[in-house]
Amino acid sequence: MTRRQYFSVILILGTLTTISPFSIDMYLPGFPAIAKSLHTTIDQVQLSLTAYLIGISFGQLIYGPLLDRYGRKLPLYAGLVLYLLASIGCATTTSIETLILMRLLQALGGCVGLVAAQALVRDLFPVSQIAQVFSLLTLVVAVSPMIAPTVGGYATVALGWHSIFLILAAITALILIAIYFVLPDGKKPDPSLSLRPRAVMGSFLTVLKQPQFLTYTLVGGIATSAPFAYISGSPDVFMTLYRVTEQQYGWVFAFLAIALIAPTQLNHSLLKRFRSEQIIQATLIYQSVVGLLMVWGTWAGWFGVYGLIAMLFLFLSGQGLTGPNASALSLAPFTRHAGSAAALMGSFRMGFGAVVSASVSLFHNHTALPMVGMMMVCVVSGLAIFLLGQRVIHYRNKKAGRQESLSEVAL
């Protein structure tokens, strides 16, 4: 693969993974306008975000087997077309119930980008480069929160909140064109893989029986759900509690996105000196300490708007390290079932994200505590699972080593 091809592939895979972040982040500044237009409350509008996360979670389980059976591109086309049509449906809705339904359909279509991108990374790059490639994709994804809310804020003011979904539809059309003309096919269709429920469940069970996959998927899924608490709660916290405008909220969101970008580049350098496991452990310890301080300070009333932004910046700076390394360690053991593994990994992450998002709405009390509290719970839980999973993996590897030694003696 030439340098130009490498850049093109990374860019397209990055845009595929940004479909969902854009779909989530871009309409956040429009929450108050949507609530007013549809004669509902911001809490109800937040449910459209939860619906989107639920759709992503379940949709990825569908696309995983399809990507393994029919190759990467055919399911990609089908999913992105569904996303495009649902985006138009979101733009033309006149009720909150229809918006929630359209967001669910939008997620069911758009989530194919997440699964396909991760599976294609496993197809197109050697195992030794996977963590670095995921870091580059995370960099592309990290830029989207800098752009999306700002564009969404100005689009809401200038053209109305409906325009946000028309912009998303136009972006998806451009991605479809790039996939058709530039993106390599990746893994070829495998007719031997059955799509019968029993066979699909068998593939998923094969993946789940791998301790390394289960450990790092749970760690990555729970720890990287923390930003969903921030995404779900921040519109109400900043625009209602601290009275910032839609445009100002977009700039706050863009500033905090910087916390996600720098660590992705740092990860690239750290991988030359440390193992992914070491980076994950150090990051989760750091985030747990920052999270506890953030919760305590919020409860004690130490933070104004600038203090809260500073603490969020410190906390979110760890996300760019945990996610890529957990993804690389989760997918490393697989070749034939890479699509199913990517689907399960993505489903777990978005499923946890949906639960976290709904929890912030459920515990809403007109303070920032539900948001920062859920963020802290995510990383502390991720650290606990990491430490336990490391012991299980070590025990399994040690047991396997003893069995191999006994086999050699027998021979």
From TrEMBL:
Keyword Repressor applies: no
SUPFAM superfamilies in alphabetical order: MFS general substrate transporter
Start and end residues of each Major facilitator superfamily (MFS) profile domain: 9-393
Keyword Amino-acid biosynthesis recorded: no
Transmembrane segments: 7-29, 49-67, 74-94, 100-121, 133-155, 161-183, 213-231, 251-267, 303-321, 369-389
Membrane topology term: Multi-pass membrane protein
PANTHER family xref list: MAJOR FACILITATOR SUPERFAMILY (PTHR23502), POLYAMINE TRANSPORTER 2-RELATED (PTHR23502:SF132)
Family, per entry: Belongs to the major facilitator superfamily. Bcr/CmlA family.
Protein name (database record): Bcr/CflA family efflux MFS transporter
Organism of provenance: Larkinella knui
Lineage, opening ranks: Bacteria, Pseudomonadati, Bacteroidota, Cytophagia, Cytophagales
